[in-house]
Structure formats: C-alpha cells, structure tokens
C-alpha cells in the first residue's frame, strides 16, 4: 500500500531554499537601490541554486519498499527495518524519516546503513507504559546534497503493530478458569469439540487437523490419535474494557485506556495460545462485543476490536452494560473487567455485573503514577500527595472486593497479581 | 556500504569547504568600505560562528545555523565597491557557501561530488554574469538592471529545466 503522503510527484523546497530565495531577492533589490553590481553576483547564485538542486534528482530513483519489525521485551523497543529499491549512488542522499511516537522516549536515534540497493535502519526507544499501537510507516525522502529540495519516494510500506504488555501474562496459558455453567444443579453437557477442557482421546479421522494430533499418544499406540475437548467445560473468559470518561480528563482517560488495551490484548493473546475461548467487549455508551471463540482468526479479530477502542465522550449507566452484556454472553462466564475506577463511584460496573451472574476479576489501571509530577509540587509534597491518593484509591477499591478479586495496577510493567487472581479463580468446580 | 554519518562523535566533515568559505568571505570583507581589517574580521567571524554551530549535533540541522554567514556575505557584498575583484569574490563566496552546505559532516561523505551538477549550473550563471559585467561599457549605472535581467533569465531557465524530464514520473507502484 502507498501512504497518501508518499504520492509520487510530491516535492518541496526546504527552509534553506526559501532562505536563499529571500536573500537573493533582497540582494537584487539592494543592487538596484545602491546602483552597485556586487550584490548581483551572490544573488544570482542564491536564486539559481534551489532550481539547480532540483535538477539533480537522480533518474534511477523510482520507489522504495519497506520491511520492518519490532524487537525487545518489556519497556525496551527496538525498531529495525530495511528499505529496498534500485538506489545506486543516490542512496547517500536518501534518508528514512521515522517520527518517534509520543508514547516513547528515544534511547538511540535512528541510524541508517546504506548500500546500493537497500538501506537498513534501526532505532531504540523506551516505551513509557504498556500499550498496543499501530505505527505509521516511515517516509523515505531524497534530498539534494545541499538540502535545498526534497522528494518523497513511493513504495510498499506497511504500518507496524507495536505490542507491549507485562511478560507475566505469557503464563496465563496454564491456568484453569471457571467453567461456564452458572447454576448449581444444571446438567453438564457432554458435547465434544475442538476447544475447552481436555475430554479424552480418540482415533483420528482422515480429515483431522494436524493441530489436534496428540503426538505422545500417537507414538504410544502406533495410530493417529487426537485430543477431544468438552466444549461446555471451557475456561472461557470475557474481557470487558470500560471506555467511559472519568473525572481525570480526556488526556488521562486516553492513557488509561491505552493501558487497558495492552492488558486486554496481552490476556487475550495468552489465553488464545492455550486454545481457550475468549470474548471481548467494550462499554462506552453502549456495549459492543465479539463473541467467544478461539483460533488465529479470532486473535486478529480481537486485536482489531481492541485497537478500535476510543474513549467514549459520554458515559452510560452500568445497568445498560449489564443488559447489553447478557444479550451477548451467558451469565456465569468469568469476566475480567478493566476499568480505572476513577470516575463517579455510583457508575461502577462491578456490583451490577456480579448481580447479573458474572464471576468477576477486576483490573484497575491506576492513574496515580501518570499524575505524579504534574502538580508543580516539591518532592516531599509530591510523595505525600501520591500516598494520600493511593490510600484514597485503596479505600475505594476495597469496596469492590465484595464482587471479586481486584488488582490495583500501579506498577505498569508487572501483572503478577492478575495472573495469580486468575489462577486462583480456576479449577473445575465439583458439580 | 555508506554510513549515515561519519564515524566518531561530532561530524568532522567540511574542513576544506569551511576554509574556502572563510577565505572567500574574509577576502570579500577586505574590499568593502569599512575600516581595513573590520570587514574581513566580520566575514570570518560570521563563518566561524556558523561552523561552530554546525559542529554541534543539536543545531546541525537548524535553518538559522547558516544565518551568520549569509548575513555577513550579504552585508559585505552590499558595502563592497563596484569592481571586477569584489564581484568575482562575491560570486565565489556564494558558491563556497553552497559547497559548504553540500559538505555536511552529518551526511555521507562525497556531498560536494554529488552536488557537482547543481554547483556547475550555479557557477555557469555566476561566471556568465561576471563575464557580461566585465565587458559592459557603463559599469556602475546599468549593471544592476542587467544583473537583474540575467538572474531572472537564469531562474526561468532553471525552472524550465527542473520541470522537464529530469523529474521523471516514478515507475509502476505496487500499491
């Protein structure tokens, strides 16, 4: 795909060119006014140079394609890529312009290594807090050696998905969650399928997916053996992201939502790796959700839905969330609620969801670290304010423990308490 | 493989062109109407300030880094008396400034060599103007107007050339 900014034929003068043209005009005017021919000579050079520089555009430059990716774990983010094309000697005048996003701190600015047919580049950043985002592709720009004019090169340059969340979430593949039967005494279904709790082994049919083969059992018996799962005994999980505005303001709401998106995606990716069904819903003014499913396609669908979440301009009553959720998901489904709980206390979701029959685990990204150092206070006052804010927040979150475990997420690069809470909530219930 | 910047800390490129620029602007300053060493000192100081600013990686790409030398050059050319020497030096100073820009230590080596085509075009313009002025019978009266006409003609020619096939349409895109 070609970015609209990389349309062919877009060229522009730099500030230097305008400087030269301006001073060239001034010198010509001065020459006429002073009746002195000397200023004419630098004026001629100044006026001709920008156009002469544009004349030097190399014919062999047509396009520049990009392949790039991200490396590193946790807060360290290294972006590496290669721009390919037939550059020839013009490679020296090409530059890769990669703007650092506002959510990173630059550790090492972009470095390029140029060859005749490719430019390798790398940049090292430090991500301020967990997030998932889509980075626009860098521009590849030819500029003349005097830097008087520039031209964007078109080419295939896909955007880059950046995914950064606490590494502990990888351990979520091993947990067992609540099964979906909400009511005691309900007869469990024996329906078998491709996901859920392990239910047994059987001989494979010819059209069996290779992903379901149980290799140990196959080796043991000498026949193709596949796993079977009890679909109704899944450890299904619903992730509910609260997008409603808080009293903190839109700036903080966006950052808290970004944190919530990162956690939601980290949980979803890890759960899906364990072949457990997962659903995703977000609540602003209305509930929008993706039904329970598993598989690679579902991972893409969930990522798209999480990335599409924006802070809602208006909040809605939590009862509306409950109604919407019950339309999409059966009660009894283990639900991870991600909300900052910094808004109006009467609008809290947990009591409503709990009463509707959803077992809850609550993850609350704390705004306290985000607000630190923004009040113009001294270090001692800042520390005191943070302590008071933390205490106030704990008092508020304590009431939510009635509805389920609550994780106050203040250390953004660790989610051990969430993993523990989810692991503790699981286990197949005795019927 | 060409590195993005020259190895080492601060960019070390542009020594030759810096000396040439300082020499040209300084020599032009010696011709102007200011007391004897003042013009030369002014020119060299302007160049020195620009060089020092450009060696600092924080300011290297800033537009205003070139302002001291452009100001010095403009001022000296306006205060210099009419004559073939100052005229030639003024043109050479402007060329030296362009070459100094091309020889930026923050970019791959060989900038002046790559900029030889545009520099040659500018040199041709300055050289033609100087030759015409040298052969002009009334040097101090009509030369300014003649210079304007030359400059306008050269700019128009450059525009026509720049819009010609030297700016080709890119090849087929795979978008």
Task: Explain what this protein looks like in three dimensions.
The complex is a heterodimer of chains A (431) and B (175). Chain A has three domains: 1-163, Immunoglobulin-like (Sandwich), CATH 2.60.40; 192-232, no CATH class; 234-424, 3-Layer(aba) Sandwich (Rossmann fold). Chain A contains ten helices and 19 strands. Chain A has helices at residues 15-34, 40-55, 215-221, 250-273, 296-307, 318-328, 350-355, 368-371, 379-398, 416-424, and strands spanning 11-13, 65-71, 76-84, 94-97, 104-114, 118-127, 131-135, 139-143, 149-152, 160-164, 192-193, 197-203, 225-230, 237-242, 278-283, 287-293, 334-338, 360-365, 406-409. Chain B is mainly α and 175 residues long. Chain B has one domain (15-162). Helices cover 65% and strands 1% of the residues of chain B. Chain B is built from seven helices and one strand, in the order βααααααα. Chain B is globular, with a radius of gyration of 19 Å. Chain B starts with a strand and ends in a 13-residue tail after the last helix. At the A-B interface, α1, α2 and β5 of A face β1, α3, α4, α5 and α6 of B. β5 (104-114) of chain A pairs antiparallel with β1 of chain B, so a sheet runs across the interface.
Main sheet overview of chain A? 6 strands, mixed
Give the N-terminus to C-terminus distance of chain B in angstroms.
29 Å
Count of separate DSSP helical elements of chain B: 7
DSSP helical segment count of chain A: 10
Secondary structure blueprint with pairings:
The complex is a heterodimer of chains A (431) and B (175).
Chain A: E1 11-13, H1 15-34, H2 40-55, E2 65-71, E3 76-84, E4 94-97, E5 104-114, E6 118-127, E7 131-135, E8 139-143, E9 149-152, E10 160-164, E11 192-193, E12 197-203, H3 215-221, E13 225-230, E14 237-242, H4 250-273, E15 278-283, E16 287-293, H5 296-307, H6 318-328, E17 334-338, H7 350-355, E18 360-365, H8 368-371, H9 379-398, E19 406-409, H10 416-424
Parallel strand pairs in A: 14-15, 14-17, 17-18, 18-19
Antiparallel strand pairs in A: 1-9, 2-3, 3-6, 4-8, 5-6, 7-10, 8-9, 11-13, 12-13, 15-16
Helix pairs in contact in A: 1-2, 4-5
Chain B: E1 2-3, H1 15-31, H2 36-55, H3 67-79, H4 84-102, H5 111-114, H6 116-135, H7 143-162
């Amino acid at each position: 795909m070609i970015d609209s900014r990389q349309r062919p034929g877009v060229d522009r003068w730099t500030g230097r060119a305008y400087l030269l043209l301006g001073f060239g005009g001034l010198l010509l005017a001065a020459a006429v006014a002073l009746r002195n021919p000397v200023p004419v000579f630098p004026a001629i050079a100044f006026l001709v140079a920008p156009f002469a520089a544009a004349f030097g555009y190399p014919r062999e430059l047509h396009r520049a394609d990009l392949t790039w990716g991200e490396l590193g774990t946790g807060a360290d983010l290294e972006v590496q890529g290669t721009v390919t094309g037939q550059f020839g000697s013009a490679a020296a005048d090409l530059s890769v312009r990669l703007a650092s996003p506002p959510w990173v701190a630059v550790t090492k600015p972009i470095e390029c290594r140029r060859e005749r047919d490719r430019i390798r580049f790398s940049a090292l950043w430090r991500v301020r807090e967990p997030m998932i985002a889509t980075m626009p592709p860098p521009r590849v720009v030819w500029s003349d050696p005097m830097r008087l004019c520039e031209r964007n090169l078109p080419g295939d340059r896909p955007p880059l998905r950046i995914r950064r969340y606490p590494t502990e979430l990888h351990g979520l593949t091993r947990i067992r969650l609540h099964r979906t039967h909400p009511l005691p005494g309900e007869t469990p279904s024996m329906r078998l399928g491709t996901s859920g709790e392990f239910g047994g082994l059987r001989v494979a049919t010819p059209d069996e997916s290779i992903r379901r083969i149980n290799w140990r059992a196959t080796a043991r018996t000498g026949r193709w053996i596949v796993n079977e799962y009890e679909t109704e005994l899944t450890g299904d999980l619903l992730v509910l992201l609260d997008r409603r505005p808080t009293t903190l303001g839109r700036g903080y709401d966006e950052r808290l939502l970004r944190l919530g998106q990162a956690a939601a995606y980290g949980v979803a990716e890890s759960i899906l790796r364990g072949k457990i069904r997962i659903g995703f819903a977000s609540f602003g003014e209305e509930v929008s959700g993706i039904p329970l499913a598993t598989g690679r396609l579902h991972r893409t669908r969930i990522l798209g839905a999480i990335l599409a979440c924006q802070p809602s301009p208006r909040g809605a009553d939590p009862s509306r969330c409950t109604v919407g959720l019950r339309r999409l998901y059966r009660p009894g489904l283990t639900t991870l609620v991600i909300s900052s709980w910094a808004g109006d206390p009467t609008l809290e979701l947990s009591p409503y969801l709990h009463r509707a029959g959803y077992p809850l685990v609550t993850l609350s990204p704390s705004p306290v670290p985000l607000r630190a150092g923004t009040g113009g206070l001294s270090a001692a006052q800042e520390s005191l304010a943070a302590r008071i804010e933390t205490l106030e927040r704990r008092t508020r979150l304590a009431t939510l423990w009635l509805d389920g475990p609550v994780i106050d997420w203040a250390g953004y690069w660790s989610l051990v308490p969430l993993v523990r809470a989810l692991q503790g909530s699981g286990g197949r219930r005795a019927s | 493989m060409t590195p993005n910047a020259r190895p080492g800390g601060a960019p070390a490129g542009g020594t030759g062109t810096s000396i040439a620029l300082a020499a040209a602007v300084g020599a032009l300053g010696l011709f102007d109407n200011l007391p004897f060493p003042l013009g030369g000192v002014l020119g060299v100081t302007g160049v020195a300030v620009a060089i020092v600013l450009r060696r600092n990686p924080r300011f290297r790409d800033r537009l205003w880094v070139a302002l001291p030398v452009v100001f010095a050059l403009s001022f000296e050319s306006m205060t210099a008396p009419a004559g073939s020497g100052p005229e030639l030096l003024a043109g050479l100073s402007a060329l030296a400034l362009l070459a100094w820009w091309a020889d930026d230590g923050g970019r791959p080596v060989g900038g002046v060599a790559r900029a030889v085509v545009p520099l040659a075009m500018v040199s041709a313009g300055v050289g033609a103007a100087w030759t015409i002025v040298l052969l002009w019978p009334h040097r101090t009266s009509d030369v300014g107007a003649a210079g304007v006409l030359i400059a306008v003609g050269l700019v128009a020619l450059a525009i026509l050339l720049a819009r010609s096939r030297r700016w080709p349409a890119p090849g087929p895109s795979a978008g």
